[in-house]
Amino acid sequence: AVYNGFGLRNQGSFSQAMREMARVLRPGGAIRILEFSLPKNASMRRIYSFYLARVMPVMGQFFGAPRAAYEYLAASVQQFISREQVLAIMRESGLTDASYQDMSGGIVCCYRGTKS
Q1: Partner of 25 for a Cys bridge, out of 4, 56, 65, 115, CB 3.0 to 4.6 A?
Q2: How does strand 30-36 pair with strand 2-5?
Q3: How far apart are CA 7 and CA 60, in angstroms?
Q4: Three-class SS of residue 66?
């Protein structure tokens, strides 16, 4: 199995990263990817986007973390590709049964696939 937690959006090439994860799997092997996403519900997406951009960097700085780290996190979540694009890349990389499940109201998404 290959597990990736909150790292796909930090890759220079999502396709290349996915191909490499698929490459190291044995046939029948499973891949699970947890990644931040934006909620599908428009109201929740607006609230979460405000939190990401305005609240989280200030809170992080308050607790001693560099504000820039949280600003990067917010930007990377906002700019990440859609769920459907991730599934398409998984399929292009040779993974079957590609699917996803939203968690925490769509703030986190768990992607699943299997190598044929």
Answers
A1: 115
A2: parallel
A3: 20
A4: coil
